[in-house]
Amino acid sequence: MRLLGAAILLCLVGVLHAFAIEEKGDVFKRMACPAFLMFDNAAYLADMTFELPCNCKPEEVSSVIWYFQKNVGSHETTVLTDFAGTVVVDSGHIRTGSDVLKRFSIRMFSLIVFRAQVTDSGHYLCGTKKGDFFYGYDVDVQPTKHITVAFVDRGQHVQDDYTRKVFSLFTTFWDWTRCDRCGVRGEQRRIGLCYIQSAQLHPRYRTAVPNVTSCGSRAVPANIQRPGRLRRPEVAIRSCLTPCLKEEVPEEGVQAISNVISKLGEKPWLPRVPTQFHQQPTGSGLIIACPGARPEHAVAWDKNSIRLYRSRYLIGVNKSMRVFIDHGNHLHIQRVRVSDRGTYFCWREGEMVAGFRLSVIYRHQRRRTLDDPETFYAVKTIGMSYVLISIIFIVIHVCRCCWQVFRCPART
């Protein structure tokens, strides 16, 4: 009877799997490709990962090719494929700022771009090797540099709408993230992107709301693009308090003796999370990333028992900050000091997930090279000082000569 039940279960699993594949195929049957290629608008914040599904294709096409164009009709087109239909990319090994050809993957006809940059803004086309296009996207990646930050607890407000005769600029906010900590005071973020409303938008671009698109969209006419570029995305931050989920405690007598023995020697005052050990020389820079976290996640950092709140440690709060958290949820430590040693804990979506134990060692003396940032900064400073002194010297001599020229006729 057990074998019969197992055989029936396997058959049901196979039927459900075949049904799922058939449903995936039916998506393309139900949605016909437009006769005239349109572009769906999509806006994201820099360093985010986004996915673009190929929503329609002919039934006879078994694999798709993705193309990238900065502008429509441009002769410079980037082919985002290996012409085998898929590219496998490990997002954990992708560095910020790398070329888009190293930051994409194609899965089930959908294009995934990891850690998007402002330069990735443009048109993405789903098509074939022959150059037949089925579906298109107008992607707008808005920068995090000089982003506008509003701390709600301090009474700060977001940007006001900017209205003119033919257009208006405003911010569209996403939902508040989860509280980044539990059991203690945490913080929530709300990301807002710049959007524009105008009746002069290009009709070839399709938007969710009529006459409304993101500020960096190619649908915006050239005469009103400049005001949209000057308005920056926003982020609002507020405090929150959420209780931690209670862990299930095993019944008395169920817990094995080995589990009891394994707890002997543990330090109960330290959080039980995976901890990585790292040594960093003094004077160098260090960037710590939370495992499995993305820019849109709720992420928090602690140093030992000290909470590193964004209201104090967010980048841009103080220009002279040496330790700060960027908008991609990375913890930066510049010019590492001995006082920076300790254990840094990472919270993700309200749960502590990892620890990072940092020990600081003294840097051995080494010869400087021109590639060092300190050497480049010193040469740049000395060069600018020399140019400034030269300009002052020339101005003084020109003034003296002019004084001599005007003074001589007066004596005559």
Automatic annotation (TrEMBL):
The keyword DNA-binding does not apply. The chain crosses the membrane at residues 383-403. Residues 1-18 form the signal peptide. Pfam families: V-set. InterPro entries: FAM187A/B, Ig-like_dom, Ig-like_dom_sf, Ig-like_fold, Ig_sub, Ig_V-set. GO terms for cellular component: membrane. Keywords: Glycoprotein, Membrane, Signal, Transmembrane, Transmembrane helix. It is a single-pass type I membrane protein. Residues 268-346 form the Ig-like domain. Its main location: membrane. It is found in: Membrane. Gene3D superfamilies: Immunoglobulins (2.60.40.10). Belongs to the FAM187 family. This is Family with sequence similarity 187 member A. It comes from Aquila chrysaetos chrysaetos. The gene is FAM187A.
